[in-house]
Amino acid sequence: MKNLFAITMVVMAVSAMGPGREMSAPSRVNPPSAADVDAAQAVRPDPAPNDAATASGLHILEAATTTPEEFLWQARPIVVFADTAADPAFLLQIRSLQDLPAPMIERDVVVITDTDPAAASVWRRQLHPRGFSLVIMDKDGQVKQRKPAPWSVREISRAIDKFPLRREEIGRMGVLP
């Protein structure tokens, strides 16, 4: 009886291990990133930023017309750098922000664009970008995130919601993220 029990246990243990080498491991396909999805859905013909508030209320300003001190304790600057306004990463980032402005407006974001390295703006001198660069700052003027590639509005929103000052704002509103 002991032998039958031992054999049964061994058979159960081996069967619980799953299939042998004759079966290949299931293939896994990674889903597209949020930036890829945003890029695929973007269809705006003219993503170039302007010097005033967009029709949606999201402020997109040129770096030459502003300084970091203007936004201290008032707004969260998101600075988008590129070596030229025709940079595909720059166009994708601006289009993404323009297409979904509500989360940015809710988080007191102002977008600063700098596509002229020769102008040596205050933003460029202070943040030292190389090529395309996305810099997310908090209301206290500190750099919180630097990214060498475009981010989706969802990724930016989630990053901002982790900032200590934003957590305080959420707490004052009595709303959980």
Produce the secondary structure layout.
Layout: H1 2-16, H2 34-41, E1 59-62, E2 76-81, H3 88-99, H4 102-106, E3 109-114, H5 122-127, E4 133-137, E5 143-147, H6 153-161, H7 164-173
Parallel strand pairs: 1-3, 2-3
Antiparallel strand pairs: 2-4, 4-5
Oligomeric composition of the shown chains:
single chain
- CATH architecture annotation of one domain: 3-Layer(aba) Sandwich
Largest sheet: 5 strands, mixed
Total beta strands: 5
CATH class of one domain: Alpha Beta
Kindly provide the radius of gyration, computed on alpha-carbon positions and rounded to a whole number of angstroms: 25 Å
3D shape: elongated
End-to-end C-alpha gap: 61 Å
Q: What is the H level of CATH, i.e. the homologous superfamily of one domain?
A: Glutaredoxin
Which spans of ≥5 residues are poorly predicted at pLDDT below 50? 23-29, 43-53
Query: What's the order of the H and E elements?
Result: HHEEHHEHEEHH
CATH topology of one domain: Glutaredoxin
What does this 3D model show about the protein?
- This protein has a five-stranded mixed sheet.
- It is of the alpha/beta class and 177 residues long.
- The longest helix has 15 residues, at 2-16.
- Helix content is 37%, strand content 15%.
- The protein is elongated.
- It has helices spanning 2-16, 34-41, 88-99, 102-106, 122-127, 153-161, 164-173, and strands at residues 59-62, 76-81, 109-114, 133-137, 143-147.
